[in-house]
What does this fold into?
Amino acid sequence: SAVISQKPSRDICQRGTSLTIQCQVDSQVTMMFWYRQQPGQSLTLIATANQGSEATYESGFVIDKFPISRPNLTFSTLTVSNMSPEDSSIYLCSVGEGAGYEQYFGPGTRLTVT
Amino acid sequence: DQQVKQNSPSLSVQEGRISILNCDYTNSMFDYFLWYKKYPAEGPTFLISISSIKDKNEDGRFTVFLNKSAKHLSLHIVPSQPGDSAVYFCAASENSGYALNFGKGTSLLVTP
It folds into this structure.
């Protein structure tokens, strides 16, 4: 499976600021995804990062709040904009070959908003 | 609405015995099911999966059973080892979609 790294691994941010999280994969992959795990909750898909086009967002998530870039087949970024304490979560990127295949996850970024 | 449910938040098992982790789902369109293991400060690690056309899949010490009529699956770990202590997540997807729907996880503790 692909080796996935994320930066930063953790951060503490102030309310109203933005943070960009990077996801780097050691090989070209078809699909990249961004998930969120709020404290005590399950992982929830935020969006599918599409190479060369706009990301596809799940219900409840919008581009203005979570802009995503995917400039090539090995890299993606997720920005958490205008943060509030409710955005405190672990953010994870994952990669996969598409529907009906397993996904492999990065180590996650632990975000705390004060 | 939680479509994948893991009703046991924690489980404790002695080393060498069987660990059974359970998962229920409500969406009859799910046709691909996965188990992930997660250690603290790490991302989930893929363990084993099963397609809805099967009722069992085995990989070493790990076996997943699927009961479609009951909308239930389980992960069996035999024999359990202390290194298996982690949080286990059940996930499901519709083959036509990319989203993995996760349960809240079960924390397994394997004691020596």
